[in-house]
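In keeping with the milestone schedule agreed at the kick-off meeting, the structural modelling team has produced records for the first pair of proteins. Each record is given below as a sequence line and a structure-token line. The laboratory manager (R.T.) confirmed that both were archived under the project's standard naming scheme.
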Amino acid sequence: MSPEKLQYVITVDVFENTKQLPTEEATLILEATKAMRNAYAPYSKFNVGAALLLENGKVITGNNQENAAYPSGMCAERVAIFYAGSQYPGVAVKTIAVICDVVADQPLTPCGACRQAIAEYEQTTGKKIKIVMATTTGKIYTANGIETLLPFMFSGKYIKK
């Protein structure tokens, strides 16, 4: 007897450039780009910037921060989301834009640890976060909520109390 199959399909919106994005998202890409330019990535030379739009209208930026005890640095997404959580507790993130300075046909997506951090923030606030992913060249992808990028995500509900 063969096992039951479960197929998971993701859908992202694809834009050719920032001119096709809604103004709010294009602005976040610009803010993330500014943050990317200040990344501290002397080891990987992989600069990443992130910008969050909070429900209260505040924009929070972050960039990757490496460390000589590589890989104990922090990704741009988590820098921004943890700062938002510490400075604006309970305020939901509407959108996060992430950009990196690589030449690629498609954007690079948040790593697994960042996906889990975004998932935790969505679960805490009960609201989906729009994720805008870009490189300095190439197309831009948007996803409506982290479940698109992290199916079967881990949740605090699984932890015994």
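The second protein of the pair:
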Amino acid sequence: MKTLMAPWRMEHVLGNAEKVSGCLFEPPGKKPFDRELLLLYRDNESLVLLNRFPYANGHLLIAPIRHIACITDLTIHEQAGLMNMLSEATKTLREYLQPDGFNVGCNIGSVAGAGIADHLHFHIVPRWKDDHNFMTVLADVRSIPEHLLTTYDKLLPAFQELLPTQTKKND
């Protein structure tokens, strides 16, 4: 018998997860990446976070820097930047985690399922054949096979390559 461990999910499952002060998609400081915050990338237009409570290993959150709630509020420049980041992040996940497919999307408004409805964000969820098993169906629990920080460390170098040269240091 194999044991599947995802200990970081228990706080979320029980509703005991520490509440983030401010907006999750507006992490403090100006660092382009931050392991503690699971921030893989930040520039002047967008950021990429590893989801702390993922649906699957490598679940990423991509958001514009500007605090807006709806896709219709994006400028043409922001639209292009977000689409480019969605593409780069998907390419990175494909190379480093080798999934069989992806779910990509966003929920606009709390009734549509947005847990954080006031800051637009996209999800990229890597998927593998048979990645969810009986536990999801019977116990409403998903297993994540790799620790979050291991996944973060695996993906960070690829996102650092996307940063302009002068911001590659985490200062």
